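Researcher: Please generate the 3D structure of the following complex. Treat every line as part of one assembly.
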Amino acid sequence: MNAANLQPIPSPLQEQPDFAVPPALAAQIDELITHYPKARSASLMLLHALQEHFGFISRQAVEWVAAKLELQPINIYELVTFYPMFHQQRVGKYHFRICRTLSCALGGSYQLHQYFCEKLGLDPHHHGPQTTKDGKFTVEFVECLASCGTAPVLMCNEAFYEGVSPEKAGDILRGCQ
Amino acid sequence: MPQEYRQILKFVDQPGYTPDLDCYLRHGGYETLKKALALPPRTLPDGRTLSGPEQLREEVRLSGLRGRGGAGFSCGLKWSFVDRKSGKPIYLICNADESEPGTFKDRQIIYKDPHQMLEGMILACYANDVHLAYIYIRGEFIEGARILNRALQEARAAHYLGRNILGSGYDLEIHVHRGAGAYICGEETGLIESLEGKRAYPRIKPPYFPAVLGLYNCPTIVNNVETLCAVKHIVAMGGAEYAKIGTPNNTGTRIVCISGTVRKPGYYEIETGKVTLGELILDPAFGGGLREGRTLQAIIPGGSSAKVFKAGERFKIKRKGPDGKETEAELGVLDLPYDFDTIIAAGSMSGSGAIIVLDDSVDIVEALANIAEFYAHESCGQCTPCREGSLWMAKALRRLTHGGGRKTDADYLARIADNIPGGRTICAFGEACSWPVQSFVAKFKDQFVARGAADEARRLANTPNAESPTGKTNA
Ligand SMILES: Cc1cc2nc3c(=O)[nH]c(=O)nc-3n(C[C@H](O)[C@H](O)[C@H](O)COP(=O)(O)O)c2cc1C
Ligand code: SF4
Ligand code: FES
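Model: Done. Output below.
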C-alpha cells in the first residue's frame, strides 16, 4: 500500500512534524514483526516501542505503524483509543499511576491521589491523566496493578512503589527533580 | 495447625534465589523437561501405544488439575478439546494478564521464578504439539516483560527452547506480547483478539471456542501462569501422586492472595481445601487476623467479581466423602474449606484465589461503589446490557456515596444487576460486574437503603450535604 491510499483520519491526535524513526528503533520494530505469523499482531508491541521512544502517540506515529503493517490508520487509531496505556498527549517527565481499586482504596489510595494532586496543583476529583503546566508531572488513577497485598501502590514511570505511606509519597516526589 | 504448602513458591523468597537460569538449574531446573523429552512410547495393556506427548496429557488428566485463572475448569479436559485433526497449527498462550482485582500471585512467579513458568509452558507445548506460543503479559508489568525476555534468551541459548530442543527434534518458539492496560484482555477470547492486534473484544462462543477456533482461527490453548507451573510439578511427580495433594476434585496447591483489612496481607500457597477461609484470614501463618479492636464485616472470596460473603453467614454444603457418599453439613463462612467446589456450593467462587477482607471500619456502600467503578471503566462496550448496565450501576453508587442517594437505589441496583448476566452478554464480564452488586445489595440491603433514605431526608430538609465526600475511602 502506498501513502496515497491512506485515508485521512478525523481525530484529535497531535501532530508531530519532526516524527522520524531512528534506525536502531526501526530494526527493533522489524524484529518484533517477525514474532508473529501475521504482521497485524505486532501492532500493540509497535505502539509500545514508539511510545517508549517518543513519549506519546502522534498522528504521524499512527500512520507510520499502519503503513508498516499494511493496515489503515483507523486500525491503529482504534487501539490508541481503546487501550488506556497509550497516550495521545505527551505525559510529564514523571508519570504517576496510582492504583484506585478496592484493596488500595482501603489502604489509602484516594488520600495518596489527593496528596499528589494538591502538591502539584491538580484537581483531586479528576481521575484521568492530568499534567502540570510545566509538563513535568502527570498524575492519574489506574485500576488494580496486581499488588493488592502491599496497598497502596503506585508506579512512577517504570518504577513500582509498594506500601506508599504519606512520608514515602513525599520522598518519591522529592526524588523527582 | 494449618500451614503453607509451598510447591510452586518453594524457592521464591528464599535468600539468594534469583530469576536467572543458573540459579534455576542449581535448584533442579529443566530436569523435568529433559525427562519428558526422553520419554519412550508406552504400550498400554489394551495394545494402544501412547507417544511421549500423549503420556504427558494423560498425566495432566489424571492429576485432576483445574485452571487457576478464574473459572477452575479442568485442564485435562480443556486439552482434550483441542482439535488435533484440522491440520492447522496449534497455539498455546500463557495468560499473564493478572488483572482481577485482589490477585497478585502470577506476579510473584513471573518476577521471581520465570524459568519455572517457562519449563511448565514448554512441557505443556510439547504435550500438545505446539510449536509457537505466546506469553500475554499485562502492559504494566514492564519489568516483568524484561525478566521474561531475558529468561527466554537464556533458555534459547541453553537449547531448552528453539530448534531441536535438547536434541529431541522438537521445535518451539515463545514470544512475549504486552497488553496495554485493559482488564478485558484477561478474558481468553479478548486476549486472542488483542494478540491479533485488535481491540480486545471478546468473541462469541459458540463458535469461537479457543480449542477449535482460537488465535488466527486455529486451535489454541489458553492457560494461566499458575496452571502452567502446576503442569511442571505434575509431570515431575506423576499425575496420580499430584492428585494426592489437596482434596478430591480440588487437587494440588493454590496460591491464595489475601488483601484488605488484615494484619498480614500477602500470598500463601496451600493444599487446596485443606485450609479454611477463617484460617486464611485469622491464623498467624496466613492473614494474621484483623487489626486491634476490629470485627469482621465481609469477605470477597475470589477476586472482585466473586459474590461477597457476610460475616456470620451459614451455609448447607453437600460434600462427597472419600467413599463417594454425599453428606450435608452446615458450615459457618469461616469454616468453609478454601477450594473450588465448597466456595461454589456456598454461592460464590474462589475464582483467581484472591480474598479481600472487609472489617467493620469499611463503608460497604463505598466498597461496592469502588468495585462498580472498576467494571464501568473496564467493560469493552460490545454488549448493551454490560456496557450500559455497568455504567448505570456505577452512577447510582456514585450518587449514593456523594449525598445524592435515594431510598429506592438498592432495588434499582438489584434490578439492573439482575438483567445483565445469564447469556445476555458475549463474555463472562457480564456476570463479573453484576455478581458483586447483586450480592452486596442483597446481603447489606439495610445499609444501602439507609444511605439513600438519609440523603432524601437531608434534601427534604434542604440542608446542605453535611458529609464532605472528600477524604473518605472512596470519595
Ligand atoms: C473478565 C475476565 C477476566 C479474566 N482475567 C483473567 C486474568 O487476568 N488472568 C487469567 O489467567 N485468567 C483470566 N480470566 C480467565 C480466562 O478467560 C481463562 O479462563 C483462563 O486464562 C484459562 O486458564 P486456566 O484454565 O489455566 O485457568 C478472565 C476471565 C474473564 C471473564
Ligand atoms: S460482556 Fe461486557 S466485557 Fe464482555 S464482551 Fe460484552 S460488553 Fe464486552
Ligand atoms: S487494588 Fe491496588 S494493586 Fe490491586
